[in-house]
Amino acid sequence: MKFPPGKRIKKILKDKKITQQELGLKLNISSKTVREIIHGRQPITIKNALKLEREFNIPAEKWLMEDMEYQLFLLRNDGIPIKRYFKSGGIKKHENR
Predict the structure, then answer these.
(1) Of 1.10.260.40, 3.20.20.60, 3.40.50.2300, 3.40.50.300, which CATH number belongs to 6-94?
(2) Predicted TM-score of the model (pTM)
């Protein structure tokens, strides 16, 4: 089961005591974009993956792969985010696919 790469970003921000707004400034993107990525509502672009690589020393390919896996999960499960998927009994509902 895949989670949005934003979950990793959120943990890093907490560990480094950096706010979403500060990250936006460092990456030269809006704090809204940071928030949308963190909550899995916006995919990570190649450009932003490179910025994250420079900031956190995690390869852009890793950010893009995690995001792609999450986006595929959503597409395969009717766009249902993971929290709602489990709350709705998604495993039973989708296991015959």
Answers:
(1) 1.10.260.40
(2) 0.79
